[in-house]
Amino acid sequence: MKDNKSIQWQHSHNFGVDNKHNANKVKKVFWLTTIVMVLEISAGIWSGSMALLADGWHMGTHSAAFLITMFTYAYAKKHANNQAFSFGTGKVNYLGGFTSAIALGIVALLMVVESVHRILEPQPILFNQAIAVTIIGLAVNVVSVFVLHDDHHHDHHHKHSDKHTHDHHHDHNLKAAYFHVLADTLTSLLAIVALLAGKYFGLIWMDALVGIIGAIVIARWSYGLMKESSEVLLDKSDDKSALKTIVEVINAEKGVTIRDIHLWRIAPAHQALILSLEIKNTDTLSDYKLKIQKILPEISHITLEVSKV
Q: Primary place of residence (predicted)?
């Protein structure tokens, strides 16, 4: 029996995305985030600022998330042509996005815990030093946002314009990293507001309040990304316009009945279709495939199950 590695198919199963450009973006932001993380944690301990320490600790969790992102890119590239993966490694981007979403949710929970702790146990803060370091962190986060910004946000020329279809064109791994940086930017801003309020108005409780507000916003981002990526991981058929188009194409032919249909996403810009038909003339099967792929080019893999009437 031949080794699986020697088996070749005429049809390509490499449905992944070209991640080289995105991977380079994430690497740059990872190093920026990690350097600022070390700076903020060190300065937070020295100055006694819980806001600054929490922000640095928060950035540390995102550095870990970026490591997950880089791993998924490397894994997808390594196994891009591995035939053991029936539909390629395109879903690894959604898996990375889902994992990062969980990390965001944990960060939000810990921010709430830290904020409550600051209310119960306030302490003296070296405001000037803490504010200076936090501003540096904010500047780095703003630069990182521009580095990670997904060019696909400006592309509105898709065949289908519904929200789900448009969202699935994005690299969810990059989107997760982008959300992490936005979360860092938000917490830096909130830390600056809290420190200024404490320095000039003596409102130490602001430190805790903005921490809770930031946690709520981050939790919402986490839930949205988790929901979107999990639907793809669970093979949810949510592209209603594509399903409707397929049914219309088949019903336009005489002597054909649809028994079952499965449509799911296998990569950011690729879908797979299994179509079960009752048909009189099997000679026209190739015509159905061509018609469907011409109208819906995102469907990269079509399998027809046929029973003759």
A: membrane
